[in-house]
């Protein structure tokens, strides 16, 4: 019998129960994998607390990496022993799991299991933000909030690789230094500086082409004021609470701005898009242009502590759970 973390009722970290769990046998089109590492993400907290809805009981977690144990009928592109990784909605906090074969990607030899688990959701989030939602090009100026987080450290390096001027915000001197070491040209400590005024100074008043904001309530509406006319506001998370309702005419008043609320699962819904995202991500990491450093490791059984650290903003970069 394998073990998994199950949530029977939503709430605080205490609802994360480490239990016996039988994933079952793979059905048609499915694969049973033994997990080597599992990624930790803020979206897991949204599901645990009930902010994002899931039918209970459920196994949280959206990314992981492991080895194929068994394949179901009709699966001819994978075989036992293959190293694979994924980014899906739920089911990751487990020693073993079933998953649709079409949602798996092969992990190249030059990418470690922990790296793959730590960067599938975060790295492909950076991919769609930089390559699809607002295609960043050389000469662009971007602002990214929570620069020392898992997505931020990947996106900062990748954006710099693309030739952008990369501005970030962070909440401590330690996090400022971490972000600076991962591609950010300028990092604003928002506990000491007003980030809007700092952006105005850094850009000599020209402001930014795009703002990537996963913080939400605490950074709105100042994020809009960091944009130049025709700039894009990308709200892709709400770690401080949701962005409050606002009149759409505000976008016109502030310079005919664009605003979007994307989610990764729309960008990788098609198999070809999933494969393109994984290919681009593995390539940029494999080349050394983007380094994925794991700063925290927790046993799967201690996932409640991991959630407490993540919610308390005591983590930096990427974190993994080890089954």
Automatic annotation (TrEMBL):
Pfam families: ADH_N, ADH_zinc_N
Domain Enoyl reductase (ER), first and last residues per copy: 11-321
Annotated protein name in UniProt: Quinone oxidoreductase
SUPFAM superfamilies: GroES-like, NAD(P)-binding Rossmann-fold domains
Taxonomic classification: Bacteria, Pseudomonadati, Pseudomonadota, Alphaproteobacteria, Hyphomicrobiales
Keyword Oxidoreductase: yes
SMART domains tied to this protein: PKS_ER
Stored InterPro entries: ADH-like_C (IPR013149), ADH-like_N (IPR013154), ER (IPR020843), GroES-like_sf (IPR011032), NAD(P)-bd_dom_sf (IPR036291), QOR-like (IPR047618), Quin_OxRdtase/zeta-crystal_CS (IPR002364)
Protein's UniProt keywords contain Oxidoreductase: yes
CDD domains recorded: QOR2
Keywords associated with the record: NADP, Oxidoreductase
């Amino acid at each position: 019998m394998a073990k998994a973390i199950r949530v029977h009722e939503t709430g605080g970290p205490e609802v994360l129960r480490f239990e016996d769990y039988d994933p079952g046998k793979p059905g048609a089109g499915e694969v049973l994998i033994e997990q080597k590492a599992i990624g930790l993400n803020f979206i897991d907290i949204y599901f645990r607390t009930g902010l994002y809805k899931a039918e209970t009981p459920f196994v949280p977690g959206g990314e992981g990496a492991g080895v194929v144990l068994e394949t179901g009928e009709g699966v001819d592109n994978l075989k036992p022993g293959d190293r694979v990784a994924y980014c899906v909605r739920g089911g990751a906090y487990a020693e073993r799991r079933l998953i649709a074969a079409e949602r798996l990607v092969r992990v190249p030899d030059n990418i470690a299991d922990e790296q793959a688990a730590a960067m599938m959701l975060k790295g492909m989030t950076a991919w769609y933000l930089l390559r699809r939602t607002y295609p960043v090009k050389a000469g662009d100026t971007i602002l990214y909030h929570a620069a020392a987080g898992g997505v931020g450290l990947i996106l900062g390096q990748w954006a710099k690789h693309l030739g952008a001027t990369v501005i970030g915000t962070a909440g401590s001197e330690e996090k400022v230094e971490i972000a600076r070491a991962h591609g950010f040209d300028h990092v604003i400590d928002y506990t000491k500086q007003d980030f809007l005024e700092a952006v105005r100074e850094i850009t000599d008043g020209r402001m930014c082409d795009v703002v990537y904001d996963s913080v939400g309530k605490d950074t709105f509406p100042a994020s809009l004021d960091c944009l130049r006319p025709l700039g894009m506001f990308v709200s892709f998370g709400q770690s401080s609470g949701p962005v409050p309702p606002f009149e759409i005419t505000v976008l016109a008043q502030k310079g005919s701005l664009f605003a979007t609320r994307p989610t990764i699962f729309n960008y990788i819904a098609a198999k070809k898009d999933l494969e393109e995202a994984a290919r681009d991500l593995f390539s940029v990491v494999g080349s050394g242009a983007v380094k994925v450093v794991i700063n925290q490791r927790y046993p799967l059984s201690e996932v409640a502590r991991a959630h407490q650290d993540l919610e308390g903003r005591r983590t930096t970069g990427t974190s993994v759970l080890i089954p």
